[in-house]
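Reopening: structure tokens for the calcium ion complex, inputs below.
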Amino acid sequence: MRLLLVEDHVPLADELLASLTRHGYAVDWLADGRDALYQGASEPYDLIILDLGLPGKPGLQVLQEWRAGGLQTPVLILTARGSWAERIEGLKAGADDYLSKPFHPEELQLRIQALLRRAHGLANQPQLQAAGLLLDESRQCVRRNGEEIDLTSAEFRLLRYFMLHAGQILSKSHLAEHLYDGETERDSNVIEVYVNHLRRKIGREAIETRRGQGYRFSGEAV
Ligand code: CA
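Re-run output (same inputs, fresh job):
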């Protein structure tokens, strides 16, 4: 999953970048509201974390303009401690959730996971599951019939994306766009390698190849 983090307080941004990366998210970071307005609407983010007090353009205005322009990406706003007015204005402007500073990093992770599940119509799943596979996002592993299957970080990122988009055909370039940040060179052949690694662990039939189109994850065991 690819996230946009908009936060002008550098120490907090650094901390969040490190924590989000550890949790398997590809993150682009911006500190200016004008840059965020443009990039948030032009890159295919899965979720946006938006501070409201920003240079260039206030976060609230950025959010209003995104929504007026039709942007549907889930947005979690970061608000000043104790400012109920900010939270209310943010929610009215189209935020999907908020966190007041300071917050516990784990709370942010859990809110992101919940927002992503909700955005994909999976709000009923406290943990992502598909056809016998249960994804443990905190430990970055997957279970089948109670048996734990270890995953590398790249496999975990790919499987999480597949499980959020079960049944959909995903091209290699689409997957690369959502699994890597804007700075990383995207090589869609690498995706093929990871898909094959993943198949060896969860079963060949779980990920179907559609020639010339991409992959379709069904999660069905062999
Ligand atoms: Ca700020």
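Residues 8-9, 51, 53-54 surround calcium ion (CB under 6 Å). The mean pLDDT is 94. Marking as resolved unless the reporter disagrees.
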